[in-house]
Design brief:
Number of strands of chain A: 22
Number of helices of chain B: 14
CATH topology of chain B: MetI-like fold
Strand content of chain B: under 5%
Helix content of chain B: over 70%
Helix content of chain A: 25-40%
Distance between the termini of chain A: 39 Å
Distance between the termini of chain B: 9 Å
Strand content of chain A: 15-25%
Structural class of chain B: mainly alpha
Number of strands of chain B: 0
Structural class of chain A: alpha+beta
Shape of chain B: globular
Number of helices of chain A: 15
CATH class of chain B: Mainly Alpha
Shape of chain A: globular
CATH superfamily of chain B: MetI-like
Largest sheet of chain A: 11 strands, mixed
Oligomer: heterodimer
Largest sheet of chain B: none
Number of domains of chain B: 1
Radius of gyration of chain B: 24 Å
Order of helices and strands of chain B: HHHHHHHHHHHHHH
């Protein structure tokens, strides 16, 4: 009796779910054709992550930047083409236009930013060079800021007048354009003892199109038109309300119901359903993150010696065989609905992405040949051995990630076909991705065979390439666990190329140096570049003006967003 | 009586201290740490991680970390979140009214429904009403809230479009009582249906036991009406076990509903705890755990005291 009831309840529930999806996707078409920007309206935008803080210097969540970008601006920003464009600065300083000068026998540099005149903070006070200097000081003063990368390299800042900022660097710091992306108001914060705990954490004041007027924790963040915004007649929208929802699924449901007009960050699996909905438009842009498998070339051991050799993965033939046996396209087609691209390097987008660099594509026959030639002989159980060592390795990824778990299943099958046993042992992301020696990150400590995760380089990839592939960055007890070169890849030529790329200013020269280092990395066959994902956002059809781009969140140009017609209520 | 209460309160102190040591130890035993999420930032360097560990005191030995937390906690300094950097007391303060609003409504709804339904099912044992109620309460009791909540959202929110899909109010709209109530219905229904099951079944069982007592026959033979017999003689005695159950609901008024608040995007304590737990934000977790455990201890004491008041046979030595 009891069993029957629960079976019936389940059946009803299943029927309801089917019905729900069916009905939701057959709504009548709404929205109107776009002819030009319209002023007014409140746009509700669903975010499924709660920004803990909106202060740019303390926030390390992507969502922090998504929300505060509507209010906080920097000296420069990137456009949809991945080029820098001036925002609060008059021009992008380069060596060519005299904005960057090399000094100290080619070992230091000075960068001059000329600021736009007549820019006002949203409270009406003038924006000046003192604010830029204050931003750097605030970043260096509080030990709780997230990253000091790029600010630590600054020796001092001069402000000869209100509209000129002269930044003196201690070294040649090639990614200098990525800094000062968020400027803080000196007149409000200079007397605040601890900015992190102040009101600035929730309502950071800036020069952007909107002013953050209300922060209801866990519920919503309201931003209203900035009356002092520098572009006349903009922004078009009166208000944006960022609505905190518990999950992507709920956000999709609210978008379909018209309770919200836009939502942040979908995954590929949600696309087939949304593409059928005539009320919804999608913004899909390539994202710089690359999902990869790293192979440990040193012995799998806690605190491993960087020069030790992994009994199985130490053999480059076996590593190459694993690359040949990885069906990247099949994974993309089956698990990502074809909405991702095959990976070939850790830097997939932008000026530094090595053009024409590829990785061996799926060819299990080649794998078998390589292994046969290298002396790995198949045993009775189908698994190969060489000199008494069984070709058995363990893969580790983050627990609870369905997509990654299914990829592991596919790989275990494929690798078995070529005589390599793949065992699965996953860990919570707070351990596997902690990047902390003390917290026991197995990648740092060298206690893994294969690991699978994703990493996203910044528009200037130096940090990523240097930290992960320079031989100086191999973590081991002797250097206090410094660095993130988890594969223990060592190549003096690659080191030289990385150092060159980090100390040059000419982008073409730098791109060539990165291409050289990353080609050598692929030759060493220590990483399998699985796939490159996309940044996916969705809007109701009556919303226009947004433009997805690679290097910045969807809210980078909210001054151009507008809405036609009133939002249909549910 | 006063001496009894005082003694129980004094006994609670070492107990609460023990709970806080255990909570801290368990949180610290969770692998990883609050800085794990920082790796998402491509700019973060090893020096950054070490600087942050030092700034948050995470490089200290665990017992020292605990003692410094305790030392500040007892003088009212509950610390700052590692993630939002906001004071923990302030974070709790802004969520608490929302949770009290939700859980208070649940508390009242459940009591108002559980008593008459529980009494009726016992008085009319084995009637169709009893079968329907007993069957469905058992069903709801065994339904996980996350599933029930989603089902209600799909049916009343997505299908019928009668009720909103989540949140506490329509964003951006001016205060509107009707709008508030409509947002309240589904989360309250989700928690109440599950809680109602246990309360009704408690009361039904205890009523059935009481109804068959000798003094009930005596009351009836005195010529008292059935209404008075049931309500005055039976219910008053049968309600005693319910007191414990209800008193233990009180801490939930503070702690909120972890799962339901998450499903409905309710900005309450449950969600605060959930978010803090996913980031291992110790100061928030310890603050909430400390208050919850204190409330549980106090609620138990309250239940014992009320018990004695309702049943004079119980004496406190």
């Amino acid at each position: 009796m009891r069993g029957h009831r629960s079976v019936r309840v389940l059946a009803v529930a299943a029927a309801l779910l089917v019905l729900a999806t069916a009905c939701a996707s057959t709504q009548p078409a709404g929205g109107s054709p776009t002819t030009g920007p319209v002023k007014g309206g409140t746009l509700v935008f669903a975010i499924w992550q709660e920004p803990a803080t909106l202060a740019p210097n303390y926030g390390n969540q992507t969502i922090t930047g998504i929300v505060n970008a509507v209010a906080v601006e920097g000296l420069l920003r990137t456009d949809t083409g991945g080029n820098y464009q001036p925002v609060l600065a008059k021009a992008v300083p380069t060596e060519k236009n005299g904005g960057v000068k090399i000094s100290g026998d080619g070992k230091r540099m000075d960068v001059t930013y000329e600021l736009q005149p007549d820019i006002k903070w949203s409270d009406g006070r003038p924006f000046t060079s003192a604010d830029v200097k204050f931003t750097w000081e605030a970043w260096m003063k509080d030990p709780k800021v997230v990253s000091r990368e790029g600010y630590e390299q600054i020796e001092s800042i001069d402000t000869p007048n209100d509209l000129t900022v002269l930044v003196h660097y201690k070294t040649i710091y090639s990614p200098y354009l990525t800094r000062f992306g968020t400027i803080m108001p000196k007149h409000i914060l200079e007397k605040v003892a601890d900015i992190s705990a102040s009101d600035y954490g929730r309502k950071p004041l800036g020069t952007g199109p909107f002013v953050i007027t209300d922060f209801k924790a866990g519920d919503s963040i309201t931003v209203e038109r900035n009356p002092n915004y520098r572009k006349k007649g903009q922004p078009y929208l009166d208000k944006i309300i960022f609505r905190s929802v518990p999950s992507r699924e709920v956000a999709v449901a609210q978008l379909k119901a018209g309770e919200v007009q836009g939502m942040w960050n979908l995954i590929e699996a949600q696309l087939p359903d949304l593409e059928k909905d005539a009320n919804i438009k999608l913004s899909i842009t390539p994202a710089p993150g690359v999902e990869r498998i790293e192979m440990n070339t040193a012995v799998n051991k806690d605190g491993t010696e960087p020069n030790s050799v992994h009994p199985v993965l130490g053999d480059i033939n076996l590593r190459r065989a694993l690359i040949y046996a990885t069906p990247k396209q099949q994974i993309i087609d089956r698990l990502l609905f074809g909405k991702a691209r095959v990976g070939s390097s850790p830097v997939s987008q932008g000026w530094a992405a090595p053009k024409g660099l590829t990785q061996e594509s799926y060819d299990p026959k080649k794998s078998n040949e390589l292994l046969d030639q290298a002396g790995w002989v198949k045993g009775g159980d189908g698994i190969r051995t060489k000199n008494g060592v069984r070709a058995s390795v363990t893969i580790t990824t983050t627990t609870g990630d369905q997509l990654r778990e299914r990829v592991e299943q596919i790989l275990a099958d494929e690798y078995k076909q070529i005589g390599v046993e793949l065992k699965i042992s996953n860990m919570p992301s707070s351990v596997l991705l902690s990047a902390s020696w003390a917290a026991g990150d197995p990648r740092k400590r060298g206690a893994f065979d294969l690991d699978m995760y994703s990493s996203t380089p910044a528009i200037d990839p130096h940090q990523t390439v240097n930290l992960r592939y320079h031989s100086k960055q191999i973590p081991y007890p002797g250097n206090g666990g410094n660095g993130q070169n988890y594969t223990r890849f060592k190549n003096p030529e690659a080191d030289k190329a990385i150092d060159e790329a980090g100390s040059a200013l000419d982008l073409e020269k730098r791109a060539a140096a990165y291409a050289k280092a990353l080609t050598l990395l692929n030759d060493a066959a220590v990483c399998i570049w699985l796939y490159e994902r996309s940044a996916i956002e969705a809007f109701r059809t009556n919303v226009s003006g947004y433009a997805g781009q690679v290097w910045d969140g969807i809210t980078w140009n909210t001054e151009d967003w507008y809405m036609k017609g009133t939002a249909p209520s549910y | 009586m006063n001496r009894y209460i005082l003694r129980r309160l004094l006994q609670a102190l070492p107990l609460l201290l023990g709970i806080s040591v255990a909570s801290f130890a368990i949180l610290k035993a969770v692998p990883g740490g609050p800085l794990a999420a920082y790796e998402a930032s491509p700019d973060i360097t090893d020096e950054d991680i070490r600087r942050l560990e030092h700034a948050f005191g995470l490089d200290q030995p665990v017992p020292i970390q605990y003692l410094s937390w305790l030392g500040r906690f007892v003088v009212g300094d509950w610390g700052y979140s590692f993630v939002s950097h906001q004071p923990v007391l302030g974070l709790i303060g802004e969520r608490l009214p929302n949770t009290v609003y939700l859980m208070g409504t649940v508390f009242v709804t459940v009591l108002v429904l559980a008593i008459p339904v529980g009494v009726l099912t016992a008085v009319k044992q084995y009637s169709w009403f009893d079968h329907v109620v007993t069957g469905s309460t058992f069903g709801f009791l065994s339904t996980p809230t996350f599933w029930l909540g989603l089902l209600l959202i799909i049916f009343f929110g997505l299908q019928l479009r009668w009720l909103p899909l989540g949140g506490m109010a329509t964003p951006g709209a001016a205060f509107d009582l009707g709008d508030r109530l409509r947002h309240l219905i589904l989360p309250v229904a989700t928690i109440s249906l599950v809680q109602l099951g246990s309360h009704v079944r408690y009361l039904r069982a205890s009523m059935l036991e009481t109804i068959n007592q000798d003094y009930m026959r005596t009351a009836r033979s005195k010529g008292l009406g059935e209404r008075i017999v049931v309500l005055r003689h039976a219910l008053k005695n049968a309600a005693i076990p319910l007191v414990t159950v209800v008193a233990l609901d009180i801490p939930e008024l503070f702690a909120g509903a972890l799962v339901t608040e998450q499903i409905f995007g309710w900005p309450g304590m449950g969600r605060l705890f959930w978010d803090a737990a996913t980031r291992l934000d110790y100061p928030i977790l310890m603050g909430i755990l400390a208050v919850s455990s204190t409330l549980i201890v106090l609620a138990n004491l309250l239940a014992d005291v009320v018990y004695g008041y309702l049943d004079p046979r119980i004496r406190y030595a």
